[in-house]
Amino acid sequence: MARVDVVMPQMGESIAEGTLSKWLKKVGDVVKRDEPIFEISTDKVDAEIPASTSGTLAEIIVQEGQTVPVSTVVARLETEVGAAVPVSSPDAAPAPAKVEPAKTAAPAAPAAAQAAAVGGAARGGGGPPAKPASRGTQATATSSGSGDGNGNSLEDRLRTKSSPLVRKIAAEHGVEIAGMQGSGIAGRVTKRDIMHFLESGGGVASTSRPSMHAPAGLDSHGVDVQPWAGDKVENMSKIRQLTSDHMVLARRHAAHVTSFFEIDLTRVSRLRQKMRAQFEAQTGQKLTYLPFIIRVVVDALKQHPVLNAAHTDTQVIYRKQYNIGIAVALDWGLIVPVIKQADDLSLSGLTKALNDLADRARTKRLKPDEVQGATFTITNPGVFGSLAGTPIIPAGTSAILGLGAIEKRTKVMAGPDGEDVIAIRTCAYFSLSFDHRIVDGADADKFLATVKRGLETYADAEG
Fold this sequence. Notes:
The protein has 3 domains: about 1-80, CATH 2.40.50.100; about 105-225 and about 235-255, no CATH class; about 255-460, Chloramphenicol acetyltransferase-like domain (Chloramphenicol Acetyltransferase). The protein has helices at about 135-145, 155-160, 165-170, 190-200, 240-255, 265-285, 290-305, 345-360, 440-455, 460; strands at about 1-5, 15-25, 30, 35-40, 45-50, 55-60, 65-70, 75-80, 255-265, 310, 315-320, 325, 330, 335, 340, 375-380, 400-405, 405-415, 420-435.
């Protein structure tokens, strides 16, 4: 018999660590090759990790809830001699033989915050102290060297080598990362660290004084929440913490304004009904309203490019790719998979991409690059009955479109002779949240008007 190390995989170029959120097997269980063995959460995606070889789970080293560097040995499989398959990537650093289990994390602070897809947070200033790295992590970091020859310690270098997004957030708020104690590998400053630091009043952008209405000992960002007798308390899931981080960052980052249009989808509804049976027979895919909407939205983005843009402090970046993020509600949180190059896809192509991404999101089989790179986002709370909403713009984009419930309404319309008639029409409210720093109200409304016109004449265009 031989033992094979199971390691924390690297789920993306910029990802340095992952949280082992759940073991799907227990010690003594037989594991087949490619069978999911544990679940991980990173700052990009939740995923199930398959076994690289068949065998028996002989030892679990990293416990549920622990966050460890990529390539850390998390378990060992016992296999037949000769069946061993290397599981570490060629670029990964050697993994430590054992990681000391970390204490179970306390529930995340309510003000902390999101998902899917942005950087992390540093505690400092008046905020709570950062969680120290585990002893195993510290040992790994210090063993690789003590300095760079210029008086900078390894910890300082790792802090300043935080992810590009963390460095961008720090630069925008005048925060010096090297002076902070992070909770990541060897003190590396993470997304959660920088968010906690900013929420506690740190940084140039956070200069407001404590509110006169705040309880003693708390600043204007803090709320003292304690469980009462009989309350149920549970730790936030990793995806809920990341969603929280991202939402607070996105809300702080953009100047949010929302416009609303009512759109008549009667013609789209009739076309969908007409082609539905044949479409589903040919493709095996259920035809919804969303592919029609995405096609019209992409055409509108081409006519109003600032809605497909991003920006720095001094520049507007007009994206030439049309990557549409679609918010998917899961039982354990929210995730936004991205349809890349949506302008190249037909109606059936969009339908297949939508269904595939949604299915794999629900089964935790998305890859990190499939939840990154959105240039515009669509969220559809209408499926739950919501008439309208004011969605938060994902960081790094300039707008998000919210779709309200599609329902039949009575409308006053012009009859054959110009007289007023009452008609039953299929309608929905569309809301567009946009970043007023680069998108003016007129631009947003012109975009929505283009979407409205495109959908209300769609059947003619297809006929």
